[in-house]
Amino acid sequence: MPPFISSSCLSFMICLWIYSCLYMHSISSQYLDDQKSLLLELKNNLKYNSEALDKLEGWNHSTNYCQWSGVECDNSNNGKVLGLDLSNKNIIGGIDNTSSLFRLQFLQSLNLGGENKIQDEIPSAIGKLSSLTYLNLSTAPYSDTNFRGQVPIEISNLVKLVVLDISFSFRTYMNRPNLADIVRNLTNIRELYLDRVNISAIGSQWCQTLASSLPHLQVLSMSECHLEGEIHNSLSRLHRLSVIRLGINSLVGPVPEFLTRLTNLTMLSLSSNDLTGIVPHKIFQVPTLRTLDISGNSNLEGTLPVFYINGSLEELTISGTKFSGVLPSSISNLKSLRTIFLVDCQFNGSLPSSIGSLNLLQRLVLTANQFSGSIPSSIGSLNLLEDLELNDNQFSGHIPSFSSLKKLKTLNLHNNSLVGSITGKNWEKLLNLESLSLSFNSLDGNISSSLFSLPSLEFLALENNKFSGQLNESANPVFSKLTEVYLSSNNLEGPIPKSIFHLRQLEWLDLSSNSFNGTLKLAEILLSLKNLTSLNLSFNRLSVVIDVDVNSSFPLLQELQLASCNLHNIPDFLKNQVSINTLDLSKNHIAGLVPRWVWGIHNLNLSSNHLVELEPPLATTLSNNSLFTYLDLHSNKLQGTFSIASPKLEYLDCSNNNFTSISKTLCNATNLHFMNLEYNHLSWTIPDCLFAKTTLSVLNLRGNNLGGSVPAEFGKNCTLQTLNLNENHLQGSIPRSLGYCKALKVLDLGNNRLNDTFPCHLKSLSSLQVLVLRSNKLHGAILPITLLVI
Would residue 213 count as lying in a domain? Predict the structure, then answer.
């Protein structure tokens, strides 16, 4: 014992130490209880939607709150809550300025994002959490918004923030206070996510704001923020930028070359803006760049450069631009490339065989370009490829084997010039294939039944080719996942395999325009295909038997097309099909009445039958509540007054019937674009209201007995492109108001009794291509007009 410390003094010091420990323990226990009570109060005030499963049930008095889900404490024993993760809890409310959340004063990380839908403004009390370094108030992309309203100025008090994420809250905005006001003090920010927050600023404003306030910024994500103007060069001062996402804005001007000098740049997304000019080759050659997306800039031009060896690019997206040129063979130098997305551009030439050396490639999408030549067989060695889309190009030659692509899910070669057979391609090895489209080519030979047995296949499109022969029965159709099958416009023949009608998941089936034969019972098809919504058997050599009980339970059809199927009656069970919107029974042998229930169908084609009248009481005037937009009744024997009218009607063809007059009720069809009543027995005069319509593009009344004069009331907003009144008994003059029809291309007034001089007033119609005036009573001099005169 040191001589200067007495025993009594030592005893006092020991007592003081013991007292201090007991006091601190008491304070610590009280503090621990306080943290727990704040969390429990927060839990009790939260509100959830009906989909919420985890309502923080593990938060209770009997357990250690530092072990609760979403709660992070420090590593000492004082129990400070440093982190709180309440993301994806389906919370819809219960967090306002009075919330106990904002009394957790040591909180450093707060996550309220994801699948929460808190329909309130961000509480201003958020500014009390002065220790926050991470704040996430985001919404799951393109789901219902989380927070809404003005971003509060109090966020500027969070000067320790390193990450701020308010992204995808599309009803959130920065107006007053604006972006500059909010980030002015947030100098420690490294990552800033404001996607879909309405900022509404021009480039010189937001760029300079970020450059002056956030010197350490590494991640800048401000897509769909209503940004305008050019990308200002002040952004170049942010030397640490690694990620730049500025898509879906209204940015203009060129892609700045200063971006190539950002030595840490790994992602650059400028998609869906109004950028123009030629993209510098150096953009593609930034050594650190992994993701480049400049798609959706329709006036952006450029070509692909020579790619350097061991380039770091993983995703290359150039779609919806004016990029042209070839895909260089040096693409093989990008050994890390996983995605090539070149859609709707002007690329041409053949694909380099070197593309087969991109061993990590997962998506190769070259849709809607001008690529030509054969498809390189080397693509068949891309073992990780999941998505191969070469559709809408000019590829020719045979389809190579893709049987080694075990992970392939989508194969789309639609609309090319491919030839040859598809048999012997070992399709059965593509066990993960979900979608196969080979339509609109010149492929021939048989269709392998193995395609219908692929275990993962859902979509099969082989229409508009030259496939021939019979379809064989496929194995185990009940286990198939096929939902859509399109085989139309080929040369297939023989009976339709019964296995087709046992594809239980089938929703869309189109076998039209082939040479299938035999007799089919519609009831059997519908009873087997319970999920069917669209069936097209038109234009084969089939006889479809309508043996359906009206009261039977069938799938809810949306489309039924049975043109040229030797039908003798309209399937009566359809009147109970409330969802049907397309019905095509043309070119059959249906006679008698058109039943009134068909007027609830949007697209109706009963042409080329033997129908004679409309079922009463709708024979005179159909209800204005009729839903149809497309109506084709041509080449029947319908008679009486033509008075079909619906406000929604857009296309009408009732030519080659026996109608005798036109009712003015037809003018109630306020959306009518196409109207053909040629070769009926229409007499009297043409209703003036037809020519006053501002929607009509084609009007054909040829070959009737119409008299009187051509109505003179062509409106100033006339939209007619074709007007055919040939072979009638029209008299009088050619109306001067035709000059209002600036879009008119074909005007046929021949074989009437018009008495007028040559219509020089039509010379103002710059779009006019065909003018027919023969066999009238025109007189005087013929003056030149630059068009074809028949």
Answer: no
